[in-house]
């Protein structure tokens, strides 16, 4: 009997373990469910990118992708019943919502005597698999990375679009939903899909991998891979990247592997503590005093719009709006600014990031934020407060990054762009004065942190 292949965060046909599990040449229906619970908080750029990936996947399947809008708990069993499938094949999901959804789908399928078969996951090593000698799970990155590398991962699966015998969705009595093509975005986004992912990866390996260990910290240069958006939707699987890196011994390759380990680490941590998506991982931070009310709202708006008067912060926030992506160094700077200079709750910032980032990923985002805020696992100590001017001068030494995204400062040459208030003629017209005094707010942040420590 035929099977149902339910795509979620694995929008590709190469390296697809779910296809292997279904068995070569098996009659199969390819399904994607447009789930408003996931789409609503995604923001237009991510929706636009997702829809592009779905069109690309449909092409790779010769037009045989069935897209249905609705609640997967209702849709998946209904489609499975319609085609008389014995089994539904998926790659396991480890997010809190995805796990609950899959369990609910599985309950209905079981009642119908059908099986939900989980093969693989979006990670090199699925959450829960990396364990210490006594079977415990890791809360600190470095030992996790060591055990992760020792654990190892599978070689890429040898599949393509013709691996299964795809059923024509036109012959199935289920109403298809056209993939929306009316999402308008002002941001300049990467090309969606599997071929685009591979092209991007190859050009990164060719041009920048060797220098990645140093290059990755420079937002003014194109030194990072920009693979996060493709990994988010599984246009490429991380094990394909790791297989390509395996033969390379350069510091750049080592460093890149380590960054990929962070992605697996945060997925593991979120799996250990699903509550950490919304709340402090370290609950002692629950007493940290944070802002609220009209003044907090005003500062939050200035931050979101990139009008704080701190050039590197503003450049980052505007890059986010312009590209649906922000350089990692600047994610840390802008996050630190929100938490430690504006004293706003990290989850305000995290929510804005999730809505604006095309690569918005619950595990990496919430734990990236908590790392900066000090409340996370393995976090940066709270007393380390980024100075936005020094960070700018160090990582954007000529000011090119700022000038790219903040047109009001386009005529300021060199490093002086990081301190527009100190220019001989004063700050250029239209660029805001700093919304806070960094030195004062730094002291305030340390006082608030001290209060957290005392309350422990
Ligand atoms: P590269 O430098 O080329 O890194 C290669 C890959 O390694 C990335 O694609 C990513 O998959 C992984 N990686 C690198 N750094 C990290 C990290 N710190 N944590 C987890 N994985 C990492 N990443 C997301 O994918 N989605 C998010 O929503 C997200 N939110 C973040 C929020 C904050 C506050 C911070 C500090 C970091 C966040 N990151 C997030 C991690 C990191 O900033 C991005 O993965 C990276 O900037 C993506 O660009 P790239 O692909 O060019 O990175």
Automatic annotation (TrEMBL):
Cofactor(s) listed in the protein's UniProt record: FAD
Source domain of life: Bacteria
Gene3D superfamilies assigned: 1.25.40.80, DNA Cyclobutane Dipyrimidine Photolyase, subunit A, domain 3, HUPs
Residue intervals of the Photolyase/cryptochrome alpha/beta domain: 1-124
Sorted UniProt keywords: Chromophore, FAD, Flavoprotein
Family note: Belongs to the DNA photolyase family.
Protein name as catalogued: Deoxyribodipyrimidine photo-lyase
Organism name: Promicromonospora umidemergens
């Amino acid at each position: 009997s035929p099977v149902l292949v339910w795509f979620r965060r694995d929008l590709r046909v190469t390296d697809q373990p779910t296809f292997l599990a279904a068995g070569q040449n098996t009659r199969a229906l390819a399904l994607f469910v447009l789930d408003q619970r996931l789409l609503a908080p995604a923001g237009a750029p991510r929706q636009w990118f997702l829809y592009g990936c779905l069109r690309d996947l449909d092409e790779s399947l010769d037009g045989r992708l069935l897209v249905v809008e609705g609640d997967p708990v209702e849709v998946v069993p209904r489609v499975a019943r319609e085609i008389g499938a014995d089994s539904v094949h998926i790659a396991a999901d480890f997010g809190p919502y995805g796990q609950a959804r899959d369990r609910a789908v599985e309950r209905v399928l079981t009642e119908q005597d059908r099986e939900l078969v989980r093969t693989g996951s979006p990670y090199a090593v699925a959450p829960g698999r990396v364990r210490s000698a006594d079977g415990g799970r890791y809360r600190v990155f470095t030992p996790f990375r060591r055990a992760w590398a020792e654990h190892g991962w599978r070689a890429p699966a040898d599949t393509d679009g013709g691996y299964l015998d795809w059923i024509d969705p036109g012959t199935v009595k289920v109403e298809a939903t056209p993939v929306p093509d009316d999402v308008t975005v002002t941001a300049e986004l990467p090309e969606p899909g599997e071929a685009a992912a591979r092209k991007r990866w190859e050009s990164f390996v060719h041009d920048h991998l060797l220098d990645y260990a140093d290059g990755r910290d420079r937002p003014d240069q194109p030194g990072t891979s920009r693979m996060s958006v493709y990994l988010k939707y599984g246009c490429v699987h991380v094990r394909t990247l790791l297989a390509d890196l395996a033969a390379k011994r350069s510091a750049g390759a080592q460093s890149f592997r380590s960054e990929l380990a962070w992605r697996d680490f945060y997925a593991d941590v979120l799996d250990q503590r699903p509550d950490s998506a919304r709340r402090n991982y370290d609950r002692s931070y629950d007493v940290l005093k944070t802002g609220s009310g009209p003044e907090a709202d005003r500062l939050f708006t200035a931050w979101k719009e990139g009008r704080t008067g701190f050039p590197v912060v503003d450049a980052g926030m505007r890059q986010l709006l312009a590209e649906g992506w922000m350089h990692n160094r600047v994610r840390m700077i802008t996050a630190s600014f929100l938490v430690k200079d504006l004293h706003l709750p990290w989850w305000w910032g995290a929510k804005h990031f999730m809505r604006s980032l095309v690569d918005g990923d619950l595990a990496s985002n919430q734990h990236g934020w908590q790392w900066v805020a000090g409340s996370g696992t393995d976090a940066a100590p709270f007393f380390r407060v980024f100075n936005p001017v020094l960070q700018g001068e160090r990582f954007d030494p000529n000011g090119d990054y700022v000038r790219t995204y903040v047109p009001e400062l386009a005529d300021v040459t060199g490093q002086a762009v990081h301190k527009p208030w100190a220019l001989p003629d004063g700050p250029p017209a239209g660029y805001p004065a700093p919304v806070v005094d960094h030195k004062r707010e730094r002291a305030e942040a340390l006082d608030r942190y001290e209060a957290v420590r005392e309350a422990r």
